[in-house]
C-alpha cells in the first residue's frame, strides 16, 4: 500500500488516475493487458514428428535399403530391379499415410490458450487525466484506476480502494460457490484470501467498486494459472507409454533378427546386396505396419461409444487412461456438488428437519403441519428480494432463472416448491418497507400488510446471521405458540446452530413480529433510515441452513470407484468444514471413518497423541499443505485412504496431483474451474464438466463429461479397462502372424529354398486382410467383471508382456508358420518340385539366364515359369496365413475363458472381420491374380484347405491352454501361458 | 523373448543378465530355464512330428512318376546351349580364351550324346533315323520297368557336333549354338499346319518334325545375319516326334532329347546382331512375359580381331 500511494498522490479519495502519457509509458513497458498465447510447435514439425514416430524409422530404413538395392541392381542390369523400387515406394507410402492419419488425430485436440484469451473483457471504465473514459481492457496498465459495477467482468487484478456492497463470483478461480464480498480492508496476507483484491476474469455480481490495477496480462493471478497450465508438459498417457514399450519390443526383435541374419547371410557367402534384400524382408515381416492405425481406430471406436454415454474424449489415448486410473482427484464445487445453494435443513419447534436436496425436487416431505412452519414459511417467502425472471411458468422450479444472490435464490426456490406461487403470496402481502442485507447489520428485514383482510396488523419479518437474530428476540415460537426465550431454549438453539454449522452449511435465522395495530395504524409512515419501528423483542421462528448439495448420482459412483480399487480424493478451494461435510455425504469419507482430529475429539486427547495410522480419513487444509515437505505429503497419501484437501490453491492442486503420481498412480483429475486447469493438464487424465465447466478447464482436460455427471466416470473406467484388455488381444492377434511372415525369410536364407512369401504379399496381410479383424476385437465383451478388480499397475501390468510376446511369437506363430509351409511345400510338390529338390535351389532358381532347371521329374523350367510358380507359392502361403489368422482371431476373443463360455456369435463384428478377411483374400487371388506387380495368382481351390488342420490345431491348443489356466490358477502353466 | 522384462529397468541390464541375489540368468533361475526349455523341447518336438507327418501324408498323394499338375511348366521353353549370361555371345576370333566358355558349355552338354554313352541296347531303342510319329511307351508307372529311349547321334549335328571342329566354328567366327525344347513330362508337341509357317520354311515341311527357325530380331539386322545352317536329324531343321513323349527321370533316366544345331556362317562382325529362334507347333505358346517360352533371343557380338 505504501508503495502504491505515491503513484496517485495524496488525494486518495478523489483519484485523478494516471496521465495518458504515463499510461502509454507503462503500456510500452509491460505490454498489453492480455494473456500471451504459448509458443506452439509449428504444424510442420508436428507432422514430421509423426513421420518418424513408432515403426516409421524402421520402415524408412527399409524403404531406403530398397532404393539402394534398386540402384545397385539397375547398375547391374538385373531384370527384377524395379520390384525393389516399388517396394520402397510402397513402404514410404505406408509411413506417410499412417503419419497423416496420426497427425490428423492429433490436430483434433485444440489449443488450451484459445479460451483464456476469450475471457478478456472488452471495455473497462478507467480514470485517466482526472476524467472517466472507456478504454479497451487491453490498454489497461498497472496503476490505472478503474470502476466496476455489478455485472462487469473484472478487467485486471484490482486492489480496491472503494467498495459498496461489492460481491464477486470467484467460483471459477477458487471453487467457492458463494459470492464473495469485497471491501477495501486488507484481511489476509494471501492475495487469494484477502478481501480487497478483485481478480481478473471473475465477475462482479453486485455493488460498485473502484480500484487500482495492480497486475495486468500474464502477471494476473489468472494469467499465472494460465501459464502454469500451459507450462505443465503434456505427460505421456499410459497407453502411449505402453505402445512405445511395445514398439520397442517389436523393433528390438526386428533389428536384432535382421542384423543377426544379415551377419549369417554375409558369412554364408551371400552377396551383400542379397543380404540387404533379406534385411528388408525381415524388417517388413517383423513390423506390424497396420497395428498402430488399428489401435487408433479401436480407441476412437471406444471414444465414440463413450461419447454416447456423455463422456466426450478429446485426446484419444485418454480413453484407456481412465481404465488404468488408480486415483481420482475430484474438485468439489460443480463436480461433486450441484454448484447451487439449496436449503438442506430446517430447525423449528426445537427439532431439525432435513430437506430434499436432489436436483429434481418437486415436493418436500418433512412435517409441514406445525403452525411454526406456517410462520417460518411466511418469513422465508416475504423476507426475500429474489425473483424469478418472468416467462418461466413451464420450466421446472429448480431450473428457473432467478435474479438475486445465491442464498436468496435457494430460499425462493425452496418456498416455491412447497408453497407454490411465491410471487402471488408476496403480492397479497404487500411490502411497505425494507432494509436490505448489509454487512454491518447482518440482517435483512421487511414490513408487510397481511393477506388476512380482518387482520390489520403489519407483519415485520427478518432474517440474518442466527446469533444476531437471536439477540433481537425475546420469544420463540414452539408449535405455533409464542413462548419466552429462556436459557434452556437458547441452549437448544445453540446446539442446533452448531450442529448445522458443523455440517458445513450456511445457517440463517428467521424471526418476525406482528406490529400492534394501535401503535402502527394503516397510515404509519415507516422510515427505514431512522428505523421508527421495533427491531428487538421479536419472536424467533426458526433456522434454515443451506448448502451446495452433492449431486444425487455421486455417492453411488464413488462407491463403484471404491470397489474398482480407485481411490477418490477431494481437492477443493472451499472451506474444510464444508468440504468434509460434502465428502461424508458422498462417501469420499465413509460413514465409519475418522480423521485424526475426530479421534482426538472422541478420546479427548491432544491431536499429537493420536496414532495416525488409526485414522483412515484425513482433511488437509491448504495452509497446512503449504508447510509440508514432499515426504510428508507422500506419507499422507500413502497412509490415509480417504483424503480431503481443502482451501487449496491451483498450485497446490498441482502439487497434490504430482504427489499422487509419485506413488506410481495414474491420476484422474475432475474439475470445472479455471483454478483446476493446471491440475487437469498435469493429471494423467483431466476430466472437465461440460455444462458447468469453464472453457479453460474444458481446454485443459482430456475428457469432458457432457452431463456433468460424476457417474459417467465409472462408465469411462469400465470402457477404458475393456479397451486395454481388447488391445492386448488385438496386439496378440497381430503379432502372431509376424512370425509366419518372418520364418519364410529365415528358411529362405538358411535352407536356400525359393522364397515362400514376398514382401508385397506381407504388406497385403498387414494392411489388408488383418485390419478389420483386429479392429473387430475392440468390440469384444469383457471376460469377467472388470469393475471388481484393482486398476492395473502402471509398471507391472504391461500391455505387451513377456507371456504375450512369447506365446504369440514362439507358440501360435510357429504353428502358423509350419501350417503355411505345408501349403508351400504342397504347391511345389504337386507342380513337380518335391521338398528335397527345393533345398539349396535358390541360386539357380533365381538365375535369370538359367532357363532349363530340372525339377524332381526331369522337367525343365524357364525362369518365368519358376517365377510364376513362386507367386503361386506366395499366394498359397498368404492364403494359409489368412486361414490360420481366422483361427487366431477366434482364440484371441478370450484370454482365460473358453470360447464357448464367451460365445462364438456374441460379437458379430468378429464375423464381419472373418468374412472381410476371406473376401479380401479371394479378391487378391482371383480378382487381382492377373496383375503382375502384386505377385498373386489364381489359386487352386484345394490349397485354401491345406492349412486348415493347423488352424484347428491352433484352436484346440489354445482351448487346452485356457483350460489349464482355469484349472490350475497360480501354477507354472498359468504363470507362463497367461498373457 | 525375455526382452519384455528387460525394458522394465532400463538401467538394470547387468542385473537382468545375471542377478546374483536371486541367481537369475535373464530373469529366470536355472530351474525355471530348465522347465521352460523342456517345455519348448516337447512342444517343438510335437510340432516337428506333426509337420513331418502332414508332409508325408501330402507326399502320399503324389505319384513319383508323374507330377500332379503341369500348368506352370507347359507349354515348354526353348533353350539355347551354351547357356550365356545376358543371352549375349560375345567373343573375339583371334582370342581362343574369349570363347572357351562357350565351347566348354557345348562340350559338357553334348557329352551325353557321344556314341559310347549310347551303347546299351537295354536302355536305347533302335528308332528310325528319320522323323516319325510319337512313340508311346505305355503308362506312367514302373510296372514294366524302365522305359527305353531313342538314340540321338552327335554326328547328326555335323559341323556343330564338335567332332570335326572342336571349337564349334568359333575359331572361324562361325559360331554354333545347340537348341533344345525343354523337357515336359508326357508332352507331345504338335507340328504346325503347313500353311501357318513362314514362307521360307515351307520347303522343308515334314509332318513328323517340329520346325525351328532363326531370324533377325530387328529389321536392320536382316542383312547382317547372313546364312544360317541347321543341322538336325536327317537334315531337318526341327525336332522329330519319335522322341516324345518324355516319361520322366525315373522311367527314362538316360533320355536324350532331340537337338538342333544352328550355325551362323556369315555374321557381320564388330556389331551387335540380335537373333531370335522360334519353334513352331500347334501346342507351342509364346508369351510377352516369358521370353524363353517357345523361342529365345541371342545377341552376337563377334570381334574380328
TrEMBL record, chain A:
Gene3D superfamilies: Calcium-transporting ATPase, cytoplasmic domain N, Calcium-transporting ATPase, cytoplasmic transduction domain A, Calcium-transporting ATPase, transmembrane domain, HAD superfamily/HAD-like. GO terms for cellular component: plasma membrane. PROSITE patterns: ATPASE_E1_E2. It is a multi-pass membrane protein. InterPro entries: ATPase_P-typ_cation-transptr_C, ATPase_P-typ_cation-transptr_N, ATPase_P-typ_cyto_dom_N, ATPase_P-typ_P_site, ATPase_P-typ_TM_dom_sf, ATPase_P-typ_transduc_dom_A_sf, ATPase_P-type_domA, Cation_transp_ATPase_P-type. It is found in: Cell membrane; Membrane. It comes from the Eukaryota. Residues 2-71 form the Cation-transporting P-type ATPase N-terminal domain. Keywords: ATP-binding, Hydrogen ion transport, Ion transport, Magnesium, Membrane, Metal-binding, Nucleotide-binding, Phosphoprotein, Potassium, Potassium transport, Translocase, Transmembrane, Transmembrane helix, Transport. GO terms for molecular function: ATP binding; ATP hydrolysis activity; metal ion binding; P-type sodium:potassium-exchanging transporter activity. GO terms for biological process: intracellular potassium ion homeostasis; intracellular sodium ion homeostasis; potassium ion import across plasma membrane; proton transmembrane transport; sodium ion export across plasma membrane. Pfam families: Cation_ATPase, Cation_ATPase_C, Cation_ATPase_N, E1-E2_ATPase, Hydrolase_3. The chain crosses the membrane at residues 57-79, 85-104, 246-270, 276-299, 731-751, 757-779, 804-827, 871-890, 910-929, 941-957. Belongs to the cation transport ATPase (P-type) (TC 3.A.3) family. Type IIC subfamily. NCBIfam families: ATPase-IIC_X-K, ATPase_P-type. This is Sodium/potassium-transporting ATPase subunit alpha. It comes from Chelydra serpentina.
TrEMBL record, chain B:
One of its GO terms (cellular component) is sodium:potassium-exchanging ATPase complex. It comes from Chelydra serpentina (Snapping turtle). This is the non-catalytic component of the active enzyme, which catalyzes the hydrolysis of ATP coupled with the exchange of Na(+) and K(+) ions across the plasma membrane. Signal peptide: none annotated. The chain crosses the membrane at residues 37-62. It comes from the Eukaryota. It is a single-pass type II membrane protein. GO terms for biological process: intracellular potassium ion homeostasis; intracellular sodium ion homeostasis; potassium ion import across plasma membrane; sodium ion export across plasma membrane. Belongs to the X(+)/potassium ATPases subunit beta family. This is Sodium/potassium-transporting ATPase subunit beta.
Amino acid at each position: 500500500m505504501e508503495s502504491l500511494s505515491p503513484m496517485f498522490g495524496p488525494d486518495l479519495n478523489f483519484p485523478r488516475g494516471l496521465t495518458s502519457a504515463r499510461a502509454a509509458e507503462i503500456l510500452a513497458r509491460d505490454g498489453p493487458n492480455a494473456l500471451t498465447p504459448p509458443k506452439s510447435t509449428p504444424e510442420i514439425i508436428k507432422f514430421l514428428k509423426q513421420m518418424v514416430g513408432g515403426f516409421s524409422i524402421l520402415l524408412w530404413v527399409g524403404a531406403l535399403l530398397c532404393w539402394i538395392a534398386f540402384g545397385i541392381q539397375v547398375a547391374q542390369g538385373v531384370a527384377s530391379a524395379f520390384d525393389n523400387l516399388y517396394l520402397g515406394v510402397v513402404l514410404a507410402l505406408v509411413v506417410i499415410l499412417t503419419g497423416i492419419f496420426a497427425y490428423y488425430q492429433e490436430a483434433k485436440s485444440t489449443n488450451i490458450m484459445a479460451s483464456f484469451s476469450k475471457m478478456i473483457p472488452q471495455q473497462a471504465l478507467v480514470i485517466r487525466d482526472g476524467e472517466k473514459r472507456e478504454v479497451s481492457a487491453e490498454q489497461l496498465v498497472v496503476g490505472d484506476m478503474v470502476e466496476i459495477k455489478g455485472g462487469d467482468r473484472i478487467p485486471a487484478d484490482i486492489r480496491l480502494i472503494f467498495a459498496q456492497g461489492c460481491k464477486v463470483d470467484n467460483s471459477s478461480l477458487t471453487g467457492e460457490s458463494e459470492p464473495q464480498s469485497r471491501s477495501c480492508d486488507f484481511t489476509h496476507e494471501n492475495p487469494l484470501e484477502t478481501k480487497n483484491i478483485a481478480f481478473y476474469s471473475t465477475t462482479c455480481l453486485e455493488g460498485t467498486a473502484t480500484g487500482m490495477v495492480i497486475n495486468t496480462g500474464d502477471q494476473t493471478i489468472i494469467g499465472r494459472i494460465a501459464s502454469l497450465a500451459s507450462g505443465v508438459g503434456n505427460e505421456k498417457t499410459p497407453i502411449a507409454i505402453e505402445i512405445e514399450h511395445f514398439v520397442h519390443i517389436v523393433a528390438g526383435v526386428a533389428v536384432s533378427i535382421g542384423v543377426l541374419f544379415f551377419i549369417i547371410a554375409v558369412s554364408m557367402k551371400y552377396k551383400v546386396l542379397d543380404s540387404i534384400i533379406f534385411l528388408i524382408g525381415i524388417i517388413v515381416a517383423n513390423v506390424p505396419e497396420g497395428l498402430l492405425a488399428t489401435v487408433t481406430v479401436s480407441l476412437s471406436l471406444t471414444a465414440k461409444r463413450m461419447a454416447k454415454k456423455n463422456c466426450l474424449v478429446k485426446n484419444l489415448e485418454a480413453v484407456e487412461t481412465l481404465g488404468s486410473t488408480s486415483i481420482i482427484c475430484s474438485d468439489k464445487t460443480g463436480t461433486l456438488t450441484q454448484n447451487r445453494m439449496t436449503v438442506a435443513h430446517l430447525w423449528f419447534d426445537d427439532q431439525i428437519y432435513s430437506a430434499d436436496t436432489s436436483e429434481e425436487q418437486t415436493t418436500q416431505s418433512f412435517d409441514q403441519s406445525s403452525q411454526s412452519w406456517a410462520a417460518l414459511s411466511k418469513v422465508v417467502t416475504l423476507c426475500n428480494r429474489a425473483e424469478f425472471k418472468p416467462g418461466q411458468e413451464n420450466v421446472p422450479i429448480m431450473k428457473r432463472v432467478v435474479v438475486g444472490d445465491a442464498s436468496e435464490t435457494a430460499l425462493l426456490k425452496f418456498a416455491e416448491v412447497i408453497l407454490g406461487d411465491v410471487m402471488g403470496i408476496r403480492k397479497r402481502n404487500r411490502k411497505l418497507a425494507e432494509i436490505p442485507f448489509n454487512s454491518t447489520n447482518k440482517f435483512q428485514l421487511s414490513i408487510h400488510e397481511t393477506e388476512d383482510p380482518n387482520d390489520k396488523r403489519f407483519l415485520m419479518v427478518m432474517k440474518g446471521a442466527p446469533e444476531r437474530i437471536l439477540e433481537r428476540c425475546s420469544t420463540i415460537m414452539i408449535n405455533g405458540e409464542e413462548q419466552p426465550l429462556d436459557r434452556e431454549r437458547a441452549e437448544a438453539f445453540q446446539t442446533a446452530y452448531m450442529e448445522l454449522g458443523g455440517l458445513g452449511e450456511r445457517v440463517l435465522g428467521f424471526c418476525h413480529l406482528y406490529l400492534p395495530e394501535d401503535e402502527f395504524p394503516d397510515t404509519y409512515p415507516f422510515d427505514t433510515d431512522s428505523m421508527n419501528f421495533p427491531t428487538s423483542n421479536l419472536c424467533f421462528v426458526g433456522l434454515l441452513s443451506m448448502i451446495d448439495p452433492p449431486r444425487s448420482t455421486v455417492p453411488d459412483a464413488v462407491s463403484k470407484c471404491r470397489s474398482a480399487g480407485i481411490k477418490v480424493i477431494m481437492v477443493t478451494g472451499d472451506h474444510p468444514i464444508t468440504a468434509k461435510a460434502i465428502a461424508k455425504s458422498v462417501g469420499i469419507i465413509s460413514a465409519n471413518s475418522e480423521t485424526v482430529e475426530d479421534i482426538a475429539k472422541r478420546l479427548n486427547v491432544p491431536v499429537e497423541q493420536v496414532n495416525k495410522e488409526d485414522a483412515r480419513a484425513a482433511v488437509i487444509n491448504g495452509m497446512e499443505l503449504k508447510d509440508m515437505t514432499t515426504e510428508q505429503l507422500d506419507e499422507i497419501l500413502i497412509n490415509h485412504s480417504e483424503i480431503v484437501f481443502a482451501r487449496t490453491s491451483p498450485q497446490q492442486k498441482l502439487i497434490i496431483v504430482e504427489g499422487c503420481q509419485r506413488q506410481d498412480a495414474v491420476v484422474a483429475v475432475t474439475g470445472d474451474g479455471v483454478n483446476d486447469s493446471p491440475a487437469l493438464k498435469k493429471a494423467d487424465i483431466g476430466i472437465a464438466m461440460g455444462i458447468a465447466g469453464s472453457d479453460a478447464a474444458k481446454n485443459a482436460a482430456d475428457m469432458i463429461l457432457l452431463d456433468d455427471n460424476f457417474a459417467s466416470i465409472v462408465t469411462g473406467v469400465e470402457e477404458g479397462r475393456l479397451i486395454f484388455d481388447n488391445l492386448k488381444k488385438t496386439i496378440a492377434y497381430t503379432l502372431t502372424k509376424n512370425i509366419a511372415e518372418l520364418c519364410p525369410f529365415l528358411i529362405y536364407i538358411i535352407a536356400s529354398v525359393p522364397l515362400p512369401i514376398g514382401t508385397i504379399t506381407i504388406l497385403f496381410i498387414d494392411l489388408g486382410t488383418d485390419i478389420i479383424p483386429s479392429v473387430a476385437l475392440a468390440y469384444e465383451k469383457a471376460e469377467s467383471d472388470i469393475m471388481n478388480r484393482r486398476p492395473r499397475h502402471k509398471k507391472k501390468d504391461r500391455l505387451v508382456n513377456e507371456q504375450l510376446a512369447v506365446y504369440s511369437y514362439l507358440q501360435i506363430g510357429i504353428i502358423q508358420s509350419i501350417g503355411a509351409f505345408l501349403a508351400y511345400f504342397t504347391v511345389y510338390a504337386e507342380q513337380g518340385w518335391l521338398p528335397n529338390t527345393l533345398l539349396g535351389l535358390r541360386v539357380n532358381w533365381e538365375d535369370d539366364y538359367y532357363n532349363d532347371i530340372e525339377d524332381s521329374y526331369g522337367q525343365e523350367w524357364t525362369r518365368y515359369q519358376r517365377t510364376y510358380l513362386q507367386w503361386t507359392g506366395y499366394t498359397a502361403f498368404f492364403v494359409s496365413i489368412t486361414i490360420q489368422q481366422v483361427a487366431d482371431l477366434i482364440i484371441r476373443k478370450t484370454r482365460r475363458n473358453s470360447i464357448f463360455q464367451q460365445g462364438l456369435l456374441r460379437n458379430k463384428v468378429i464375423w464381419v472381420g472373418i468374412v472381410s478377411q476371406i473376401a479380401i483374400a479371394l479378391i487378391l487371388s482371383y480378382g487381382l491374380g492377373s496383375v503382375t506387380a502384386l505377385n498373386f495368382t489364381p489359386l487352386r481351390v484345394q490349397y485354401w484347405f491345406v492349412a486348415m488342420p493347423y488352424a484347428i490345431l491352433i484352436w484346440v491348443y489354445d482351448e487346452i491352454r485356457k483350460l489349464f489356466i482355469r484349472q490350475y490358477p497360480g501354477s507354472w502353466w498359468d504363470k507362463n501361458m497367461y498373457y | 523373448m525375455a526382452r519384455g522384462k528387460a525394458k522394465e529397468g532400463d538401467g538394470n541390464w547387468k542385473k537382468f543378465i545375471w542377478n546374483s541375489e536371486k541367481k537369475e540368468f535373464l530373469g529366470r533361475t536355472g530351474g525355471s530355464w530348465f522347465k521352460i526349455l523342456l517345455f519348448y523341447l516337447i512342444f517343438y518336438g510335437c510340432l516337428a512330428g506333426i509337420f513331418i507327418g502332414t508332409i508325408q501324408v501330402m507326399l502320399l498323394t503324389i505319384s513319383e512318376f508323374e507330377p500332379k499338375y503341369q500348368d506352370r511348366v507347359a507349354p515348354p521353353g526353348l533353350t539355347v546351349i551354351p547357356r550365356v549370361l545376358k543371352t549375349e555371345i560375345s567373343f573375339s576370333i583371334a582370342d581362343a580364351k574369349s570363347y572357351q566358355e562357350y565351347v566348354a558349355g557345348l562340350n559338357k552338354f553334348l557329352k551325353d550324346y557321344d556314341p559310347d554313352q549310347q551303347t546299351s541296347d537295354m536302355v536305347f531303342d533302335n528308332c528310325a533315323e528319320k522323323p516319325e510319329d510319337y512313340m508311346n511307351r505305355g503308362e506312367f508307372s514302373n510296372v514294366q520297368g524302365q522305359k527305353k529311349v531313342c538314340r540321338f547321334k552327335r554326328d547328326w549335328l555335323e559341323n556343330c557336333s564338335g567332332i570335326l571342329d572342336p571349337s564349334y566354328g568359333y575359331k572361324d567366327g562361325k559360331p554354333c549354338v545347340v537348341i533344345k525344347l525343354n523337357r515336359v513330362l508326357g508332352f507331345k508337341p504338335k507340328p504346325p499346319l503347313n500353311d501357318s509357317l513362314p514362307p521360307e520354311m515351307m520347303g522343308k515341311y515334314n509332318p513328323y518334325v517340329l520346325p525351328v527357325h532363326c531370324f533377325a530380331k530387328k529389321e536392320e539386322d536382316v542383312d547382317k545375319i547372313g546364312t544360317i545352317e541347321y543341322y538336325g536329324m536327317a537334315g531337318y531343321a526341327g525336332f522329330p516326334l519319335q522322341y516324345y513323349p518324355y516319361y520322366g527321370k525315373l522311367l527314362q533316366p538316360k533320355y536324350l532329347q532331340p537337338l538342333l544345331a544352328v550355325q551362323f556362317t556369315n555374321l557381320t562382325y564388330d556389331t551387335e546382331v540380335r537373333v531370335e529362334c522360334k519353334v513352331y507347333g500347334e501346342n507351342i505358346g509364346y508369351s510377352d512375359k516369358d521370353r524363353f517360352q517357345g523361342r529365345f533371343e541371342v545377341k552376337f557380338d563377334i570381334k574380328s580381331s
